[in-house]
Design brief:
Blueprint (H helix, E strand, L loop, with lengths): L1 H15 L5 E8 L5 E8 L9 H7 L4 H6 L6 E7 L5 H6 L9 E8 L4 E10 L3 H13 L1 H5 L16 E3 L3 E4 L11 H11 L3 E7 L6 E3 L3 E4 L2 E7 H5 L7 E4 L1
Parallel strand pairs: 1-8
Antiparallel strand pairs: 1-2, 2-5, 3-4, 4-5, 6-7, 7-12, 8-11, 9-12, 10-11
Length: 245
């Protein structure tokens, strides 16, 4: 799980450098009710501020530590398949085979100016997405333990759940995070997150007829919702709502 440690370090630097982060959540729904769900953390803009080596130095990783983490070469394109996670951790979720449908990709490239992490799930039914979020911490326990927490903690929702009817998709309210920042912690998050954006893209099997979601824009079969990350954290922006198609 070295690559998760690297990502966690760079994420810390991104937060310190005024919110050089964009989160893109995307759901593609087929007529069968199956589809693809993904959530991407894009920190590519941070590479405009310095090289990966410099950023790792700012994160406290010297040359020796960078070599141990495999960061002596600054071009990484990695895919982690959840099916390869420890069998005992997958079993703890109650459905070990489920994780055959999920993967994580990480791309770090100075030449392409890319610094991106994505988790994706090929779902068979909408309930799969809720199961994924509820059990992600369990199946990622080994990698998260090296960092003291998930590298995406605080940037991705505490949970995501949808309800699908014949011609409508409903997003249910997001549960509150267990460790919701408050007081001084929230003030620091306001400073760190800066202009960070959270964008959700819904690709539907038919043309969209009506949307009951704040800040939603319709373009044919696609609905795009963009919010400030801070507004979501403070509860000023809600992700729930309904799309008719």
């Amino acid at each position: 799980m070295k690559k998760l440690v690297v990502f966690g370090l760079l994420l810390s630097v991104s937060l310190l450098l005024s919110g050089c982060i964009n989160v893109i959540e995307e759901l593609t729904l087929n007529k069968s009710g199956k589809g693809l769900y993904s959530i991407t953390i894009d920190m590519s803009s941070i590479l405009q501020l310095g090289s990966l080596k410099d950023l790792m130095n700012q994160a406290g990783a010297d040359a020796e530590a960078q070599k141990k983490l495999g960061m002596d070469k600054m071009e990484k394109d990695t895919t982690i398949y959840f099916k390869d996670m420890p069998a005992d951790l997958k079993a703890q979720t109650g459905d070990a085979k489920f994780w055959d449908k999920a993967k994580m990709t990480m791309k770090m490239s100075e030449s392409e100016k890319k610094l991106v992490m994505q988790m994706s799930l090929d779902f068979d039914k909408m309930e799969d997405i809720e199961f994924f979020y509820k059990n992600l911490g369990t199946v990622m326990k080994e990698g998260a333990g090296e960092m003291g927490g998930m590298p995406t903690e605080g940037l991705t929702p505490a949970g995501v759940a949808f309800k699908l009817a014949k011609k409508s998709l409903t997003r249910l309210p997001t549960p509150k995070a267990e460790n919701q920042p408050s007081g001084e912690d929230m003030e620091m998050m306001k400073m760190f997150l800066g202009t960070a954006k959270y964008t959700t893209i819904y690709n539907l099997p038919n043309r969209v007829k009506k949307v009951k979601m704040a800040n939603a824009k319709i373009d044919g079969n696609t609905v795009t919702v963009e919010n400030s990350m801070l507004d979501i954290m403070e509860g000023k922006a809600k992700l729930e709502g309904q799309i008719s198609f």
